[in-house]
Amino acid sequence: MAVQDVSERHEGYEAYLEGYARVLADASATGRRLSREELASRRALGEQAAEAGIGLRALVGAHMAATQAHWPTGSGVSVDDVLSAATQALDAFAEGYERAQRHAVRQEEAARREFIDDLLYGRSDLGRLAQRAERYGLRLSYEHAVAVARGPAVYDEGDPVLREVERALIGRFGDRSILLTTKDGRLVCVAPGDQHDVLAHFAKQAFAATGGGQVAIGRPQAGPAGVVQSYEEALNALDLADRLELDDPVLRAADLLVYPVLTRDRQAMADLVESALGPLRQARGGAQPLLDTLTAYFDSGCVSAEAARRLSLSVRAFTYRLERINKLTGADPSDPVHRYTLQTAVIGARLLDWPTKPL
C-alpha cells in the first residue's frame, strides 16, 4: 500500500521513466553495468525533462518510486545490484538534465548579451527592442538614465564586483526596473529616469566595490534611443575626465555640458588655443610648464598661494610665471577681462591635448 501511495504522488512523469523498469530488471539480473545505449537513453530523457521545465527533485522522487514499484525479484538478484543499476540510471538522467540546463543558461546569456548590445548601441528595430526590454523589466516608453562605472580592472558578467553591487542595489530597492550589466570592462546601470536615488546608490556602491573607481551618470532620456544617448553621455563624461584630469568620484553629464559646446567647433577652438596660448612656445622649456601654471591657477580659483602649493613652487616663483605668461601672450591671468579668454583656451588645450599634439 505504501508503494502505491508513493507512485501516485509521482504520476505524470511516466514519459521520463520510459524503459526504466526494463533497464533496472536487466541490469540487476546479472549485476552488469548499464550499456552505452541504456545510459544514452537515460540522458536523453533527462534533457527532455529539463526542457519541459520539470524540477529535478520531483524527477528523482519519481525514479525512487518507480524503483520501489518495479523492484526486481528472482534468484540471484541482490539489493546491491538493484541499487547499483538504479544509481547508474539516475546519474545518467541527471547528467542529461544538467546538460540541458547549462545549454539553456548559455542561450539565455547570449540572448541577454545581444539585448544589452542592441540597447546600448541602438542597433535593433526600436519597436522590437521595446518588446524585448519588457522581459528584463524595462519599459522603454519611459525615461531612463544610464550610469557607467570604471575601476582599475576589467569587469565581466561573472565578476564578483558586479555581484556585490547587484546585491546592494536589490537589497535596498528590489528589482525596481533596474538593469545591471557590464560593457567593455565597465559596470553599467540602467534605471528609470525619475529614480535618482537608484543611480546615486549605484555610484556609491560601485565606487566602493571597485576600490575607488569613477562613475559617470548620463541625463534621463525618453524612449529606446534615449538609453543610447544617456549611455553615450556617461561615456563622454569619463572621456572628458581623462582629458581634463577630473578626479571627482561621480561625474554628471548635466554638469559638463559646457565642454561639448566648447568642442563642437573644433577648428574655432584650435584657433583660440593657437592665438591665446601659442606664444607660450617661446618660453624656456616650451609651453607645457606655463600651461600647467595656468591650469593650476584656474583650478585653485585664481588663488596664487594655493596654485603654487599644487605645483610645489614658492609663491614668488609662481608669480614670476604669471608675469612671464603676461609678457608672452599680452594677456594678464589676474585681469577678469583677459581671464575668460585664457581659461577657455586652457580648457581647449586640455581637450585637444595641446601642445603634445599639433592643432
From TrEMBL:
Full protein name: PucR family transcriptional regulator
Domain PucR C-terminal helix-turn-helix, chain residue ranges per copy: 290-346
Similarity field: Belongs to the CdaR family.
Superkingdom to which the source organism belongs: Bacteria
A Pfam entry, by short name: HTH_30
Domain CdaR GGDEF-like: 122-240
